[in-house]
Amino acid sequence: MPETTRESLLNGGWKTLEFEWFREGVTVHWIKPFELDQPGVALLNYEAGASVPRHRHEGLETIFVLHGVQSDEFGDYGVGSYVVNEMGSEHSVWSDTGCVVLIQWDRPVTILSEQ
């Protein structure tokens, strides 16, 4: 099983992991998939220019940026940024340069618009 320790991920170990399609321009490596009422933990790899449309958080979401810059309507988040999106919050996400983030969702999000 590939190593997903904090030290490995911070040192670029995510580059050796297998990712699968998540949505156009974004791939995912599941560390812990969602199970019933259990949170999901994953790595998301955004290609340059990729985005996720406006969505609502149905539970707490936390993000730690491992590589590149992730952006939303509230700012740009570079390597080492820790972002907390509270339940009920809404935003869209993109990466002009491409990025890799460690993400934990309490619950899946609800996509509000595909634009």
Q: Could you explain how this protein is built, in words?
A:
This protein has 1 helix and 11 strands. The chain has 115 residues and is mainly β. The longest helix has 5 residues, at 6-10. It is globular.
Question: How do the helices and strands line up, and which of them pair or pack?
Answer:
Elements: H1 6-10, E1 20-23, E2 26-32, E3 40-46, E4 50-56, E5 61-68, E6 70-72, E7 75-77, E8 82-85, E9 90-95, E10 99-105, E11 110-111
Antiparallel strand pairs: 1-2, 2-3, 3-10, 4-9, 4-11, 5-8, 5-10, 6-7, 6-9
Content-based structural category: mainly beta
CATH-defined topology: Jelly Rolls
CATH superfamily: Jelly Rolls
**Beta-strand share of residues:** over 45%
CATH class bucket: Mainly Beta
The domain tally reads 1
Q: Which sequence of SSEs, written as H and E, runs from N to C? A: HEEEEEEEEEEE
Report the radius of gyration as a whole number of Å: 13 Å
The total of helices stands at: 1
The overall average pLDDT, rounded, is: 90
End-to-end span in angstroms?
37 Å
Low-confidence stretches: none
Question: Which geometry do the CA atoms define?
Answer: globular
Relative helix content: under 10%
Strand order of the largest sheet: 1-2-3-10-5-8
**What CATH architecture do you see?**
Sandwich
Keywords: Plasmid
Organism: Peteryoungia desertarenae
Domain ChrR-like cupin: 17-103
Pfam families: Cupin_7 (PF12973)
